[in-house]
# Entry
Amino acid sequence: MSAPLLEVVGLSKGFPIRGGLFGAVRGEVKAVNDVNFKLAKGEVFGLAGESGSGKSTIARMILGLTELSAGAILFEGVDLSLNANAAARGRAVQMVFQNPGSSLNPRRSIGQSIAVPLVARGLRAAEMGTRITRLLDMVQLPSAFRDRYPHELSGGQKQRVAIARALAVEPRLIVLDEPTSALDVSVQAKIIELLMELGGSLGLTYIFISHDLSLMRNFASRIGILYLGRLVEIGATRALFETPAHPYTQSLLAAIPVISAAEEALKPKVDVVEGEIPSPANQPPGCAFHTRCPRAFAPCARTMPAFTDLGEGHSARCHLLSSPAP
Amino acid sequence: MSDAPLLSVRDLSVDFTRYGRASHVLRDVSLDVPARRHVALVGESGCGKSVTMRAIMGILATPPARITSGQIVFDDQDLLAMTGRQREALRGTAMSMVFQDPMTSLNPVFTIGDQMGTILKYADRRLGRPRGGAGRRARIHEVLGQVRMPDPERIARSYPIMLSGGMRQRVLIAMALLSEPRLLIADEPGTALDVTTQAQILKLLKDLVEDRGLALLMITHNLGVVREAADYVYVMYAGSVVEHAPAAELFANPSHPYTRALIDCVPKLSGDTTFRGIDGSLPDYAAPPPGCRFAPRCALAGADCQQPPPDRKVGADHFAACWRVAEAAS
# Structure
């Protein structure tokens, strides 16, 4: 990989648990725990995991919406997590949120919503009109939409507006937090197509957060799988889907509902894990997944496994890979 | 489906009137749900799945809605000919519903046991079989066990916030099972949950259908869930059933152009097929196309599609409402 566009180093976030009469800190929820990854320019990096795995917290930290407990977020070598670099962060990174219904102000026309980041960036009023038309054009909406209000738009159209607004400041990196999970599949396909086109023509890099692994298979170039705030496996999309190494990844893939026997054959032949993800406030010792893992053995409850390199940037964190089960 | 189905909807049409303007939402919807079968009604938002479900349950707000024609037969009784009181007696007893959102369908200030107790008390009253507090508690623990909750006594004492999403979904299923219904209608079960949890919920529903002989009507937008869980599928588009078939047959041999387009939209695990959307949007229900409602978005549409399409047989128990079904299949 050439010099990375974004490098996340030792990213951690703990939220204090308060209780008792005076709200004393009684413990810590480790929402994100020592996460490391690098993004090359033009890449679509998928972050997958179940709810409570820390995907959204990572996104919020990259956007500066949540402070880091430890670690650094280097964008072309500049640490975006420092407050001194907040202006640079706002220009470099933008976000498209999950629910297009609630992420647009209902009292602002579409044009006004898109203008907000442009005004903040000091664009002159004279240029505003052409710029908004161009942004709407980029997301394939007619320029007449600038005078409409969010309630007049369908879900897919609203999400296009949200994308136009994110593009307004010409960011280099866009974080997509479940951008299509509120949409129908026929609309989802159109939005993903648009994101792919924009990515290519504008040279954008995406971090794509989703729990829909089939969608990720078709959109992301590399994927990181999170479990209880830690990356457990990371690799090129193809490698991760064809040779998943971590038992959790295997189980996630096995649980995907698919629509043909041909796809059924592509899923790992393992049973779907029982139970649910434990509370991050109460993490199991050792490998956090050992309480649900069908193949757990003695070391799993004691020590957190290190990453094992499986070649070509594919690695996973599992004792089975470093010391085979007895 | 040989013997008479437990639930049979025949040519159901529903209009909605708002500000004096009528919308023709459901048009001639027919579907059957036999006992011991898991039937799915699949379609995108706005296709009329929820209106169908509400009409069956008798919880459609009339007005604005008006059932203009059709029949809903449950256990040889014509539901639409019943009085409101008679229908109320069926609801929550013989036919029961599992709501969609496990996060918001439970009251946060009462324990699970309290909420289930209230439901059971009213169901018992309607069935005229009073049961004491201890009997109710025993029944609640029994049903929580049936949905495979560990430690039912503890769950009954818990507040919703103490339970995970998957457990809350199980509680909602348990609530629907309290009065031993024969028909269960599940609205998007498990779709708000993670895939591994969703798989567990679908397995539970499957076992309930098989072990307890329930008739299950599942409303969903997720085709993957349909293929994995359902026996028989109805595909809805813009208020009409466009295709129905056994689940395996539908995915092996989709025949209606809408079904085929919808299947093409689903991202595939192989990653090598380019998935595409469907151009255009749902028709305006106030002035729907006169014939096939999918015609304005259909690549195969022609002059004959201006007439309502017949339900054509395309295979064993497999029908598609399309004039061009032969062309669509090629």
Summary: Residues 243 and 320 of chain B are 4 Å apart (CA to CA). Residues 1-94+182-330 of chain B form a domain with the Rossmann fold fold (CATH 3.40.50.300).
